[in-house]
Specification:
This protein is an alpha+beta fold. The chain folds into three domains: 13-55 and 73-100; 117-281, Cupredoxins -  blue copper proteins (Immunoglobulin-like), CATH 2.60.40; 293-356, no CATH class. Helix content is 31%, strand content 19%. Helix 2 runs antiparallel to helix 3 (73-100). It is elongated, with a radius of gyration of 29 Å. The termini are far apart.
Length: 363
């Protein structure tokens, strides 16, 4: 047992010892599910040992041998009835907790006297950007929140799909390029809780970690808000401006130490944030000249750009400009596989069918 204890000494049991209401509900569902399944598993494990031993070929007393046995109502009721009851109970609890813990659903059943704290989370290569729209500031790789105040996360990605999770607080939600997801959390106790991406996203993935700090003490809403506001002022005093140009520089793939990709990027503060930045990140149109996803879908609905849109092809291209190699280094955009052939009288452009095949809105 000692070697096993040594191996487990470095484990963290955040999921089983949460400090947030959401995490506590998830833990309860996990424990209920395990206990219900053990009702089947434990008897099965016992019978796997008991029956081979009881009916072994070398036993001395074979008087209970019944070669014509074919049916037992008691056995049938037990074999079918118990699993059915367990499935009904498990399904009921799963239904209740699934709706209660819908990540898009505000925590209405928990008493809050304040509006939720809004945080816009953006997964980058390989770091996290957190924007506080109510305060006009942003951070890289750091979250702070008042104890007892509901936090409403909106998430997206400027790169490949990632997963946002703070195990101590509960919840896990994907961040995806061109999309928005939501998550609601609350910290019931003060502390510093580890957060990270739980979805492999390239060579710097292991360094995509951050700290989520809950400020204050339970029940002291005014004091907790004061501590949080002090931190906001600290961010404004120490930070720089997160302009569009600054974000485009920030979103480039980077690691704190390329030789040690598990080392997180340093914490960075921004005192101002460019207008509507999160929505433009989700729309993939922060870079000047790029067409936002909403506009692109409107154009597709109207029939697309056709041949006339080939000249604007670069405005609809995104992924090739974000490609990285196996070491996290940005790769140059791939050359276009074909380009419109310009010829003909009166300055008219003629494009072959091969050149236009598979393209919509100039893509």
């Amino acid at each position: 047992m000692l070697p096993v204890a040594v191996l487990l000494a470095g484990c963290q049991y955040d999921v089983l010892v949460p400090t947030g209401w959401v995490g506590a509900q998830q833990r309860d569902l996990l424990l209920i599910s395990v206990l219900l399944m053990l009702i089947v598993i434990i008897p099965v494990m016992v019978m796997v040992v008991y029956f081979p031993w009881k009916y072994r070929a070398t036993r001395k007393d074979n008087s209970d041998y019944e070669p014509d046995f074919s049916h037992s109502t008691k056995i049938e009721v037990f074999v079918w009835g118990v699993p059915i009851l367990i499935i009904l109970a498990l399904g009921t609890y799963t239904y209740i907790y699934t709706h209660r813990l819908d990540p898009y659903r505000p925590l209405d059943h928990v008493s809050f006297n304040e509006e939720p704290l809004q945080i816009e989370a953006v997964s980058l290569d390989w770091k996290w950007l957190f924007i506080y729209p109510q305060y006009g500031v942003a951070t890289v790789n750091e979250i702070k929140m008042p104890v007892g105040r509901q936090v409403e996360f909106r998430l997206t990605s400027s790169t490949v799909m990632n997963t946002f999770v703070v195990p101590k607080l509960g919840g896990m939600i994907y961040s995806m390029t061109g999309m928005q997801t939501k998550l609601h959390l609350v910290a019931d106790e003060p502390g510093v809780f580890a957060g990270r991406s739980a979805h492999y996203s390239g060579p710097g993935f292991s360094g995509m970690s951050f700290n989520a700090t809950a400020l204050g003490t339970p029940g002291d809403e005014a004091g907790n808000d004061a501590l949080f506001n002090d931190w906001i002022e600290e961010v404004r005093a120490q930070g720089t401006d997160l302009t569009d140009e600054a974000f485009l520089q920030l979103e480039k793939p980077s690691m704190a130490d390329p030789a040690r990709p598990s080392v997180p990027m340093p914490v960075t503060y921004y005192r101002t944030v460019s207008d509507n930045l999160f929505d433009r990140i989700a729309g993939m149109c922060v870079e000047p000249g790029k067409v936002c996803m909403s506009e692109m879908m409107m154009q597709d609905r109207a029939g697309g750009g056709g041949e006339a849109g080939l000249g604007d092809k670069h405005r609809y291209e995104y992924d090739s400009e974000r490609a990285v190699d196996g070491f996290g280094n940005a790769m140059p955009p791939q050359a276009a596989p074909f380009a419109p052939a310009r010829h003909g009288a009166a300055g008219h452009d003629h494009v072959s069918a091969v050149e236009t095949e598979g393209h919509t809105n100039g893509q």
